Amino acid sequence: MPTFAINEMTERTTDVLLNENSMPEMPETAVEEYVRWAKRTVRGLFYSYNQEAYSPVEGELQVLVPAVVARVGGFTRYSRDISWLRRGYVEEVYLAEHRS
After folding, report:
1. Considering the entire predicted model, what is its pTM?
2. Which site from 31, 74, 81, 89 is most exposed, i.e. has the minimal number of CB atoms within 10 Å?
3. Contact 57, 43 (CB under 8 A)
4. What is the dihedral of CA 40, 20, 70, 66, to 10 degrees?
């Protein structure tokens, strides 16, 4: 779903969130909004498969997913592996921190 669609979703919970090939190319504010939404709704796993080129695009450095997730909070990184399929890509699994 496009990032603007998260605001139209009802506040249900989900067990697994998968994000692939999008966050580094999004504006950092959009990534933060996405991760804040995930923090509210994900009760299980957040799987991220994104590149980490950290290259400038129109003068702005690309977003680093682990930096945004750490800043927003709500998740503990379970694993982080370099992709053996695609150079420059990282697979990360985050566990939602349980809230009462």
Report:
1. 0.87
2. 81
3. no
4. 180
State how many domains the chain has.
1
Q: For residue 25, give the 3-state DSSP assignment.
A: helix
What's the rounded Cα separation, in Å, for the pair 56 and 53?
Answer: 9
| Cα dihedral across residues 29, 3, 75, 46: positive or negative | negative
pLDDT digits (tens, 9 = 90+) for 3-20: 677 777 766 788 999 999
Residue 31 vs residues 1, 8, 11, 26, 36: alpha-carbon distances, Å: 13, 16, 18, 6, 9
pLDDT attached to residue 18 = 94
Token look-up 């592996």 returns: 81
Flag whether 88 is in a domain. yes
Residue pair 88/51 in contact (Cβ under 8 Å)? The answer is: yes
Distance in angstroms between the alpha carbons of the first and the last residue of the chain: 28
